[in-house]
Amino acid sequence: MSALIADDELVHEVELVWLEDIHGLDYVRQSLDRLPTRKGRPTYHRDGRMVGYAVLGTGAKPSRTSGTFRRRVFWLLPHDRDAVPDGLYTTGAPAEAVDPGTLSPGSKGRKTARSEGGAHAARRREAAPSPDL
């Protein structure tokens, strides 16, 4: 969860790599995953899709017990607002979700009116074409 990510766990981040355009996303989920490398696209083992990931600098040290690095991964599930605008997260957002516009290397980001389904998200839903039934 975002609230459980401490600032000191992100000090070695040097870049966030986005795999898709985040400007149209109200929120992304983030987690700290144990990964075998400091950089490069990690393997993804969740439902949904990976939206981005963090790259660590050379100062990042692996865990002495596992040899892995803790890196952020950004992702969305099939029932998130971008895919189902009138679904479970029409308003509100998952605990681990943040507005992607508030993210940068070393900063865990935050929730905003946009990520919580505020006026900006409502305007986008209203502007979206209705599906033909």
What does this structure look like?
- By secondary structure, the chain is mostly beta strands.
- It has one domain (2-127).
- It is 7% helix and 24% strand.
- The chain contains 1 helix and 5 strands, in the order βββββα.
- The protein has one helix at residues 119-127, and strands at residues 13-18, 28-35, 49-56, 69-76, 97-98.
- The chain has a 5-stranded antiparallel beta sheet with strand order 1-3-4-2-5, with no helix packed on it.
- The radius of gyration is 16 Å and the shape is elongated.
- It starts with 12 loop residues before the first strand and ends in a 6-residue tail after the last helix.
Summed up, what is this model?
With 133 residues, the protein is mainly beta. It is 7% helix and 24% strand. It has 1 helix and 5 strands; from the N terminus they run E-E-E-E-E-H.
